[in-house]
Amino acid sequence: QVQLVESGGGFVQPGGSLRLACVASGFNFGISAMTWVRQAPGKGLEWVSSISRDGSGSVYLDSLKGRFTISRDNAKNTLYLEMNNLTTDDTAFYFCAKCWRCTEARGRGTQVIVSS
């Protein structure tokens, strides 16, 4: 079955950076578009970014453009999210999903806390 395991979250001060990873198994990762979504405390799921199956195309939530970068390594079945210049508004659980521009969360996610 589809398994998605997120990692790389943690505690970071405003202005800091983190790199999230999502290891996929149970499906053909190389032919699947992938997505990151997040859920801030007390809020619903928010779409963050999506990447095409070969990595040639990506889209972002407008407010995150220039700070977040999505990428993938199909040889390692791994999806990444590079997050820079983090703000307190980025505090959330981050999830990866096997879809394009969707809002769904199957895994446990990885928690990002941005605080001074």
Radius of gyration: 13 Å
Number of strands: 10
**How far apart lie the N and C ends?**
40 Å
Strand line-up across the major sheet: 2-10-9-4-5-6
Proportion of helical residues: under 10%
Ranges where pLDDT stays below 50 over 5 or more residues in a row are none
Mean pLDDT: 96
How many individual helices? 0
Order of helices and strands: EEEEEEEEEE
Largest sheet: 6 strands, mixed
**Secondary structural class:** mainly beta
Q: Approximately how much beta-strand content do the residues carry?
A: over 45%
The rough form would be described as globular
From the structure above, extract its key features.
globular, four-stranded antiparallel β-sheet, 116 residues
Describe the structure.
29% of the residues are buried. The protein is globular, with a radius of gyration of 13 Å. With 116 residues, the protein is an all-beta fold. It contains no helices and ten strands. The model has no long low-confidence stretch (mean pLDDT 96). The strands form two sheets. Strands 2-10-9-4-5-6 form a six-stranded mixed β-sheet, with no helix packed on it.
